[in-house]
Amino acid sequence: TEAAASFLDGRSPVVISNRQPYSHEYEDEEVVVNRPAGGLTAALDPVMQTVEGTWVAWGSGEADRVVADDDVVPVPPDDPSYDLRRVWLDEDQVDGYYYGYSNQALWPLSHSDTTRATYSQSDWECYRQVNELFAEAAVEESDGETPVLWFQDYHFGLAPRMARDRLDDAFIMQFWHLPWPGWDVFRACPQADELLDGLLANDMLGFHTEAYCQHFLDTVAALTDLDVDRESRSVRHGDRRTYVRPFGIGIDAASQAEAAATEEAEEFWETFTSGHGIDEDQRVAVGVDRLDYTKGLVERLEALEHFWETRPEWRGELTYVQKGAESRSRIPAYRKIQERVEAKVADVNARFGTTDWQPIVYTTEMLSEEELAGLYRGADLCLVTSLRDGMNLVSKEFAAAQLDEDGVLVLSELAGSSGELGEDALLVHPSDTPGVADAIESALTMPDDERAERMRALREQVLDADVFDWIARQFWTAERIEGARNQQESTL
Ligand code: G6P
User: Fold this and answer.
1) Which of 108, 270, 318, 355 is most open to solvent, judged by the fewest CB atoms within 10 Å of its CB?
2) Do the beta carbons of residue 58 and residue 99 sit within 8 Å?
3) Residue (of 42, 27, 20, 41) closest to 259 by Cα position
4) C-beta of 245 in contact with ligand 1 (< 6 A)
5) Atom 10 (ligand 1): residue with closest C-alpha?
6) Closest Cα to atom 12, ligand 1: which residue?
7) Helix (H, G, I), strand (E, B) or coil at 53
8) Alpha-carbon distance 53 to 141, whole Å?
């Protein structure tokens, strides 16, 4: 909040994200308020409460329209301190903008999955139209001479330009939560030029890692005539610049640790393990993922299969718990990954399961924050094997919840978090089946003191660079960039 106050200097910012911090749903025919569990919304919410800005988001809750007779609702519902402005989308718009261009073009493209990306012209038109709606709403909600607009993520590749056209002096910033691919991958996108133009309307553009920043600058250098200033990591266009900076996102680590310390967490772990016939001297590995093809779920299950196949002594001794969260299911590639995961789980369980041991426990049940923390805390190891991942917050949640400091993190080197956590996690290549199996064995046989030492270092990192620190780092940098902008210099 100190950084926010210093940068904002009395201005009320407008945050724009696809997902909203509060939604209204029906529950037993009653309308209830939901706080969608998402790291970003949970972290920005307290900041917004202190700076009294406006949050613009898609009104996606089933009952959102019923509750709000206006586009704007004051939130938090029980003690309002800022405004939530809903953008309403009809079904075609949701299909084209969200399920279409955002998640079937930009999502796979950003994860360098060029063969999965499809570029439908009508999706693109929809994406542009919805970006217009959000840009308009953001402009309407902004006030003052130099308002601050902060766009979140790949749903808004065009909106910054649209907002800039209407508000020349605004300070516009954006954070791209996905990886940025190499320039030779990005050029596979037929709309590359317009997207770059949209993003370059930002004064500051943030990515999780330095590598993604470099990829973005490479892309601009390769695909446009603009002047890329490597030294100041900025792109010059006319008398303006876009500064490109890394800000690795964190989690609300303190509240994760708190959740892990609750009775509810402990009770859940006990009921869950005993309910699945896992007794106390057995070891447990855990995986927690949105059911997305970027997470390397099938590869992970293959590595576990290889582990039990080549190390029969661990059959009956190590159980793997996979918590999956259904995601974007209207998209065929997502339905397919769900089916493949279910089939593989059934396969491995049929192959190695016995009357008193089930190798893989698979659940898509919704868990509360405390229950999830209980699962992380109780587990001996956590497997994160993304094929590519902007950051990966599960790796951080696991560490934060490991209050007893006796678990091991097995982490894909292709997850953004491997840069920060790689020294103390066991790094793996997600598609290297024997390599992942070896890492599982190393984790299980690691001496106690080494385990504790590594987990302590992981926890320290995660507690230190948390999501509040992520916000502060951006506001401090934004303040310096705005200062430089006002003096028309590039001293950064
Ligand atoms: C990623 C994106 C977020 C998104 C989340 C969940 O982390 O960066 O913007 O909210 O996935 O996906 P969903 O499509 O359900 O919002």
Assistant:
1) 355
2) no
3) 42
4) no
5) 19
6) 327
7) coil
8) 9
Q: Which is the closest atom of ligand 1 to the Cα of 178? A: 8
Q: How many Å lie between the centroid of ligand 1 and the Cα of residue 351?
A: 35
Two tokens, residue 468: 């509040």
What are the percentages of helix, strand and coil residues in the chain, rounded to 5?
A: 50, 20, 35
Query: What pLDDT digit, counting tens, does each position of 445-481 carry?
Result: 999 999 999 999 999 999 999 999 999 999 999 999 9
- For 54-79, letters b (16+ CB in 10 Å) and e give bbbbbbbbebbeeebeebebebbeee
Q: Name the DSSP class of 205.
A: E
Residue 440 has pLDDT above 80, yes or no: yes
Ligand 1 and 111: CB distance under 6 A: no
CA of 7 to the centre of ligand 1 (A): 27
Whose C-alpha lies nearest to ligand 1, atom 9? Answer: 153
Shortest-distance atom of ligand 1 to CA 153: 9
Cβ atoms of 449 and 421 within 8 Å: the answer is: no
CB of 177 closer than 6 angstroms to any ligand 1 atom:
yes
pTM of the predicted structure, to 2 decimals: 0.97
Ligand 1 atom 4: the closest Cα is on which residue? 19
Task: Match 């006796």 to its residue by tokens.
Answer: 406
Helix H, strand E, coil C: the string for 233-291 is: CEEEECCEEEEEEECCCCCCHHHHHHHHCCHHHHHHHHHHHHHCCCCCCCEEEEEEEEC
Most confident of 29-33, 62-66, 455-459: 455-459
Q: Is 85 in the pocket of ligand 1 (CB under 6 A)?
A: no
Q: Identify which of 153, 334, 384, 397 to mutate to test ligand 1's pocket (most ligand atoms within 8 A of the CB).
A: 153
Q: Contact, 465 vs 396, CB < 8 A?
A: no
Residue 246 burial (CB count, 10 A): 17
Report the chain's mean pLDDT, rounded to a whole number.
95
